[in-house]
Amino acid sequence: MINLIKTKEEIQKMRIVGRISAKVLEFIEPYILPGISTGEIDRICHDYITKEMKAIPACLNYHGFPKSICTSVNDVICHGVPSEKEILKEKDIINIDVAVFKDGFYGDTSKMFFVGKPEVNSKNLCKIAQLSLYIAIKIIKPGLSLRSIGKTIQNFVRKHQFSIVREYCGHGIGRSFHEDPPILHYDAEDKGIKLQPGMIFTIEPMINYGSEESKIMEDGWTVKTVDKSLSAQYEHTILVTKSGYEILTLRKEESFF
């Protein structure tokens, strides 16, 4: 794992790209209203990333992905493709996943947004998904076993009777968009990996209201719940420090960290 430890210079560049990623989510929030298309949301984010932040949308053309961000609405788990035909309506929930590339490094983050006033079940699902990320982040420190992250998320989510998607996971990140190690969101074998200062990775649990099972749609990207139940996801890029952790994609609304 030593080759995945970032230098001080690399960490500083990751701080910059992480902050840019967070700023995109802060910037787009006022636009998330009934009547806007996910295609328009994509254009707004693209312009902000490229013109204001002078960065590159990492999702655009990544393995052929056609847009600059992912927009996953209601029963879409992840990798939703923005479209002019997809119009947000009152009570929808949407995950916006932003990844940017600048000066040789990648940043990656996502959060849920409510369109208008949310249903009680939608609000509760999103709350548990966000808290599952937070409680996992708070245990991060050198020497922690990698599987402890997934085990912590699993125990919390099961207690609230939701399910965890297993086909998709967090990942190391830095000079490459996706690096080792994979960060599973459930208790699983981790080959004895222990966290070390200088490691940077994403934690991004995908939590379903119903079944954990998923399916990929005909576009080859969009992942939905099999039973059409709601899904929610929050994601941060995390640095392991000498004493604990640093959230590189922290938003202003999360100043309590």
From TrEMBL:
The keyword Nucleotide-binding does not apply. Residues 12-242 form the Peptidase M24 domain. Its cofactor is Co(2+); Zn(2+); Mn(2+); Fe(2+). The lineage of its organism: Bacteria, Pseudomonadati, Pseudomonadota, Gammaproteobacteria, Enterobacterales. Monomer. One of its GO terms (cellular component) is cytosol. One of its GO terms (biological process) is proteolysis. Keywords: Aminopeptidase, Hydrolase, Metal-binding, Protease. It is an enzyme of class 3 (hydrolase). InterPro entries: Creatinase/aminopeptidase-like, Pept_M24, Pept_M24_MAP, Pept_M24A_MAP1. A divalent metal cation 1 binds at residues 97, 108, 235. It comes from Riesia pediculicola (strain USDA). PROSITE patterns: MAP_1 (PS00680). Binds 2 divalent metal cations per subunit. Has a high-affinity and a low affinity metal-binding site. The true nature of the physiological cofactor is under debate. The enzyme is active with cobalt, zinc, manganese or divalent iron ions. Most likely, methionine aminopeptidases function as mononuclear Fe(2+)-metalloproteases under physiological conditions, and the catalytically relevant metal-binding site has been assigned to the histidine-containing high-affinity site. It catalyses: Release of N-terminal amino acids, preferentially methionine, from peptides and arylamides. Its EC number is 3.4.11.18. A divalent metal cation 2 binds at residues 108, 171, 204, 235. GO terms for molecular function: initiator methionyl aminopeptidase activity; metal ion binding; metalloaminopeptidase activity. This is Methionine aminopeptidase. Substrate binds at residues 79, 178. Belongs to the peptidase M24A family. Methionine aminopeptidase type 1 subfamily. Removes the N-terminal methionine from nascent proteins. The N-terminal methionine is often cleaved when the second residue in the primary sequence is small and uncharged (Met-Ala-, Cys, Gly, Pro, Ser, Thr, or Val). Requires deformylation of the N(alpha)-formylated initiator methionine before it can be hydrolyzed.
